[in-house]
Amino acid sequence: MPRRDIRHAFRPGKVVAGLAVLAAALLYAGDAAGTWQIPWFVVFPVVFGGLFLSGAVGLVDYKVRRRREAMAASMDRTDAPASTSGSQAIR
To answer: What is the C-alpha to C-alpha distance for residues 50 and 19, in angstroms, rounded to an integer?
Structure first.
């Protein structure tokens, strides 16, 4: 079975940020529907806490990706020349 080409990388930090904003929207939708009473300032800790968590998740994701790429590059066994900078004479 051939490997499916991925169009873009999965970014979990963006998912966390979206969920935080969605949670704030659901809180205000419940308030507008009269289900519960939410003070106006509740949105700030929900959204900013979600953005902080999103940044932390994004940082961890970045570090993991960099480490995986470095490990894959160090294990790459291609027949490339030792120097590709052009400093050696081509014969």
So the answer is: 8
